[in-house]
Amino acid sequence: MSQMIRRSLRSRVVTVAGVLAAVLASSPGRADGESPTPIATDATQTQVDIGMMYAGGDVHFFGWMPDPSADVVVRLTSVEDEPIDVNIKGQVGPLWMNVKQYRVSGLPRMYKIHSTRPLAELLPGDLARKLGIGYETLKDGMTLEAIRGEGDPADRDLVFEGVLRIKSDANLYNVDENRIRVAGGKLFKHSFRFPPAAKEGTYVAESYVIKDGRLLGRGEDRIVIQKTGIEAAFFDLAHGRPTLYGVLAVVVALGMGLLVGFLFKKGGGH
């Protein structure tokens, strides 16, 4: 009996020691400081279905704060990269027209930043670059290919400003430095808007806990956007059987033309 008791006590000591070791290892104040502590995060949904009537929607995110006095920055980006063409206007004689065109790549389809307070107050420049936070980090990764006119390195800022304006107008790029709320010093919460312009693909929300300019914790959530209904069917047809899609598009266009002609004819000369 005494032997069983000793075994039970040894087992409990080992278990308690393991729990204490795990807690100490995950403590934000640990000495190594080399890797951030994984933090628990979650989203209200992991999939967004978009169809012809999709008008945008919000996905709410939550996370656990390892230190109540820390700050949080969350970066939402797309996994896929989609090139975009940008024109530069110039004066040709008395007219203003497109004189150059660049193909821009290396920029995500969506880029949104939320934080508990202004980024300049909580993120040193080197850490911001390392985490890819801020428009300047995006511009560093942007590549340009001149497809009309002569390329000029001086156009880089102008092209980036054009892309930023296009993406911001579509609510695909956004920085909101006072969006995240912390409840009870432990739970942070906020929501990202996925606008109608959001395209099919995988999106990653990376949550960073920052204190005194150091990265304490990190969490990650993935959201998949996929087409549904008629839009999905046409998309699959266009990419899987393009010839049939072309024939069908012609038939639909002819049908719509006949329908419009019939309606106008039926309405008489009014």
Descriptors:
Immunoglobulin-like, four-stranded antiparallel sheet, flat, 2 domains, alpha+beta, 7 helices, seven-stranded mixed sheet, 270 residues
Give your account of this protein's structure.
The chain is an alpha+beta fold. 35% of the residues lie in helices and 36% in strands. The strands form 3 sheets. Strands 1, 3, 5, 8, 10, 13 and 14 form a 7-stranded mixed sheet that branches. Strands 2-4-12-11 form a 4-stranded antiparallel sheet, with no helix packed on it. A hairpin with a 3-residue loop joins strand 11 (181-183) and strand 12 (187-194). Helix 6 crosses helix 7. The longest helix has 25 residues, at 2-26. The protein is flat, with a radius of gyration of 27 Å.
CATH class of the largest domain: Mainly Beta
Number of strands: 14
Order of helices and strands: HEEEEEEEEHHHEHEEEEEHH
User: If classified by CATH, what would the architecture of the largest domain be?
Assistant: Sandwich
Mean pLDDT: 81
- Judged by helices, strands and strand pairing, the structural class is alpha+beta
Biggest beta-sheet profile: 7 strands, mixed
Number of domains: 2
What is the topology?
Layout (H helix, E strand, L loop, with lengths): L1 H25 L10 E2 L2 E3 L3 E4 L6 E8 L6 E8 L5 E9 L2 E11 L5 E5 L3 H4 L2 H7 L3 H7 L1 E6 L7 H14 L3 E4 L4 E3 L3 E8 L6 E11 L2 E14 L1 H12 L1 H25 L4
Parallel strand pairs: 1-14, 3-14, 8-10
Antiparallel strand pairs: 2-4, 4-12, 5-8, 5-13, 6-7, 7-9, 11-12, 13-14
Helix pairs in contact: 6-7
